[in-house]
Amino acid sequence: MMNNTLVNGQPSAHISLFDRGLSYGDGLFETLRIEAAKPLLLQRHIDRLCAGLICLKIPFNQMFIDVLRAEIEQLCKGQKQAFLKLIITRGAGGRGYRAAEDLEPNRILMIAAAADYPQRWYQQGCELYLCRTRLGLNPLLAGIKHLNRLEQVLARSEWQDQYPEGLVCDIEDRLIEGTMSNLFLIRGQQLLTPLLNQCGVAGVVRSVIIDSAQRHAVEVVQRALSIEDLFQADGVFITNTGFGVLPVRGCDGRTIPLSPMIQAASQWLAEARRCES
Amino acid sequence: MMNNTLVNGQPSAHISLFDRGLSYGDGLFETLRIEAAKPLLLQRHIDRLCAGLICLKIPFNQMFIDVLRAEIEQLCKGQKQAFLKLIITRGAGGRGYRAAEDLEPNRILMIAAAADYPQRWYQQGCELYLCRTRLGLNPLLAGIKHLNRLEQVLARSEWQDQYPEGLVCDIEDRLIEGTMSNLFLIRGQQLLTPLLNQCGVAGVVRSVIIDSAQRHAVEVVQRALSIEDLFQADGVFITNTGFGVLPVRGCDGRTIPLSPMIQAASQWLAEARRCES
Question: For residues B143 and B197, what is the distance between their CA atoms, to the nearest angstrom?
C-alpha cells in the first residue's frame, strides 16, 4: 500500500496531544491539487504559506521550505488525481499560550482522494447558499490560511449537499467569500472582488485570477462589496483549488446572469496550472 | 509510572491527523486545577464546556458528560497539586469544513504539573504588560473557550517572563481581558468587568467572582471598559483557574492602587473552591 501521510518526513497517521496545532490552532494549512503526480500552482501555495508563517511569527528558513518541497514531491509520486493537504504547526509544547523559543515546527502532509465536480456545474453554473453565520473582524489574521477555522465550520454546517458552496458576509454586512472559496463579480469589463483586510482567506486561485486579469488588461478592483453588488453583477464566479473557476447562476433563490468573462477566467487558470511551477 | 493522558478513556499521547481539532481548531478546552486529587470548581467547568458544545453545535448527551466526569476523576487520582487540561473536539473526519453527521466527539485529558505562583505577587500585587496585539470582533464565538486561540498566542509572544500576564484590547480600543485571565476593576463599592459579547473568554473564576459579589451585595457592572478606566480604578485584579485572584499594582509603567476589596474577592474564590462540587 502506498503511504498517504507524512509527519516530519516519516509515515505516521498521528500527532502528539501536545502539538500546538491541536491546542490552539497554532499553525497554517494549504490544500494542493495534484494532476499526474504534479502539485499545481505549488509556488503560489508556498508563497502564501510563507506569508502565513511570517504573520504568525513561526520561524523558518530556506532549508525548511526545501525539505517541505521534497516531501510534497515524495507524496505526490504515483498520484494521478488527488489533493494534498499540508499542515504546518508551531510545534509541540510551550507553557500555555507562550511557545518555547526553540520549538521546531511540525510538517504534516496528507493525500486525499480527488473530489468529483459535476460537469453541469461548469456548463449551467451553480446555485449558491447564503450563510447566516457572519465572519468576525480580525485584521491581524485576515488573508492567511491559518488553522482557526471555526467560523467556516459553523457556516458550512448550515446546509447539506444541495449547494456546492455558501457565501458568507462579515458582521458589518460586507460580502466576503465562500466558506472555502473566493468570490469575483463581473461588472462591465471590470472584475470586482472583496477586500480581505478584515477577514477572509486570500486564495491561491484568487491570486491567479488577479494576476492574469492584469496581464490581459482587465481591471480588478478589490473593495468592500455588498449583497446588492452581487445581484447587480453581470456575472459571478467563485474560485478555489479544487473546483477551479465555478460559474454562479443564482444565490439565495435569486438569479444571476452568466457572463462570457467567466470562460476567460477559466482559461487563465488552466494556463497558470499548465505553465507555473 | 502513573498514566497522565487519556484519549477517549484509553492511555495515549497521540491523536489522529484527521481530528478536526487539529484541522480547524474545531473544539473546546478547559484547564482545571486539582488539589488533593479533587478538581476544583468542576461543575462550573462542565457548565462552560456544555455552553461551548451548544454554541459549536457539537452533539452531546448526559452520558457523554458522565463518562467525562469519570475520566476526570480517574486521572485526578493521586494528584496532590496539578492541572488537568481537557480538550473536546468534534471528532475525526468529514469532508472539508463539513462534519459528517455521525461524528463522535473526541475526549482528550492531560495532567500537567502545577505552576508556581510567587507569594510576592499576592502580597505586593503584580505589574502587567499591555499587549499591542488587538483582539478581533467575533460575537458568534465570544465567551466560550474554543480552540481558535491564535490571537492569544500572538499576544503572549510579545513579552518573556518579566510580567505574569498582559492585558489585551480589542480592535475598537476596548479593554477586554488578559491573554489567559479575566479583568476586574474596583470603583468605590462597585466591581467593573468587561462585557464579553464581542470577544474574550468568560472564565470560570470570573463567574465565581460575579456570583459571590452578588451574594455579598457588591454590585458588578459588565460594560465596555477603556485603558482610562483601568488607571482611574481604586483597585484592579485579574482572575484565572491557575493563579486565582491576583492583585495588580501597575500596568504599562503606570501605578494602580491596591484595594482591600481584592482580599475579599480572594476569600470568595477560596470559599467557592472549598464548598462547590
Answer: 7
